[in-house]
Amino acid sequence: APNAAAVRSMWSTVREKVRQRSRTTEVMLSGAIVRAVEGNTLVLSHESAPLARRLTEPRNADVIREALKDALGVDWNIRCEVGSAAAPAPAPEPPPPPPPPDEPPSPEAYEDDEEAMLAEAAAAESTEAPPPRDPEEAALELLQNELGARRIDG
């Protein structure tokens, strides 16, 4: 009989066979993982307790059992436990939200910000690059400076 690793390697095929019989059961299996094979019982693990319970209800367990017969040639019972095979590392705690300000900023603060932004924009406009040069003139200058070319007037 196949071991858990063999079942895991064929799991997509098993799920396809389940899907052919019951789309609902296949959707419930999407969060399930193969934990072990104990004798003639396939032990699945699901993070959702309600779904783990539903997967072992006769109508769903029979669909999985038939899919296993079809895909792997085994006649196994189905047990679904709650939890994951290897507990994932806990997610890092999100940083706490910044404390709310004691009072909303005054309208004057918004006006000061707006004036600062306008002054910044005006300063940026005054330091803009000079207007673009004639491309032919720029090309000639580049040829002369980089390649030592000389203009030939004809």
Question: What report would you give on this structure?
Answer:
With 154 residues, the chain is α+β, with helices and mostly antiparallel strands. The protein has a domain at 4-82: 2-Layer Sandwich (GMP Synthetase, Chain A, domain 3). 51% of the residues lie in helices and 12% in strands. The chain is built from seven helices and three strands; from the N terminus they run αααββααβαα. The protein has helices at residues 4-9, 11-21, 23-29, 49-55, 58-72, 107-126, 135-147, and strands at 32-38, 41-46, 77-82. Strands 1-2-3 form a three-stranded mixed β-sheet. A hairpin with a 2-residue loop joins strand 1 (32-38) and strand 2. Residues 85-92 have low confidence and may be disordered.
Describe how the helices and strands are arranged.
Elements: H1 4-9, H2 11-21, H3 23-29, E1 32-38, E2 41-46, H4 49-55, H5 58-72, E3 77-82, H6 107-126, H7 135-147
Parallel strand pairs: 2-3
Antiparallel strand pairs: 1-2
